[in-house]
Amino acid sequence: MVRATGAVLRLCMKKIELEIRTADPVYVQIERFLRRQILTGRIGPSEQLPSTNELVRQLQVNRASVIKAMAHLRAEGLIDRKPKRGTFVKSSVDRSVIGVLIGENLSDETSYFQRAVCKHLREELMSMQDRYWTYRVYDGLFGLDAQTDFRQSPMFQNLSADLRNYPFKGMIQVLGGLSGTQASYLAFNLPTVRLGPPYQGTSPEVIMDYYRFGRESVEFAVRRGLRKIFYLRAIYEVSGKTVDLDGVDDAVRALKLGAVETRQLHPAMIGGPHLEQAGYEQARALVEEWNARGENGWPEVLLISDDIAARGVARSLADHGGEAARKLMVLVMANKEIVHHYLVPVMRYEFSIKRVAHELLDVLWKRIVGEPLPDLPVKIEGNLRQ
How many distinct structural domains can be found in the chain? Predict the structure, then answer.
């Protein structure tokens, strides 16, 4: 509990009283108080606020709290600092906007994850009490050629126009396998945070802990007495060896297993429908291959690193796998808040989309207001659901 003070803020001959006494940090109380005074009109448009030193004296608080509160209000677009003149309430206040850039078309049936990210981003913004924020979503970036029609696409044109008309403060990118060239078109000189995995030299700020998925999935299978493991990898290919494979390999060495055979899915195009179809076709080919090997040709465990790809795999196993498929343990990297109805039993290694949304907004907010960032990338840990 912070100490109680009966602080009086004097603005243009008005007395505005702020009593600091709640358990919230002092800067949060100052920020909340000033925001409400501005939004209710008690501190009017174009009215000048006291200087930092004057606010410290009047409110009887430390300087760092005042500076942090004012930085947050500037980030929201409620006040504006004019060099050599001071800090003023903006003449008109619009909600500060965050752009959310999505690779898939949200109208696609398989875009469960992307829609859930948007849902939880909205809930996170609504939970920020009276902060004056909203977001706008731009989807359908996949399938556009980097050299010709990307910047001429309706999505890109709409986004470019909105940037001229709305007070954007930052961008969240959920782009999957977008090319580095395309990603460079989306910088817009704004604070940005990107959800992984990395691709073509990019460095995402938030990423699922793929290493733990690879390692813990293999360890779980071995604890169940299953040692013949096959990994169907649905993470979009990137250059170099990736951490999910490092996790698998480290578990193999520690447990003294034979090599885990791995195949990479190659969908015809980026996007959920193509990934699901690629999973179906690859599983059909694998069933033929495993059957051709004879009685012991099938693995005991099939790891799949994407729940949409796993839908196609499960459908194919149900169509073509026969009795052997029913003995196979299928373990899928999945999303905690989304439940698919597969045609075969599956185990799920789940990541929380709600946590993804929280971390994306947290990193972006810190970039907007200039606060220290956490260690990057932020890794979202998953857990086996048995």
Answer: 3
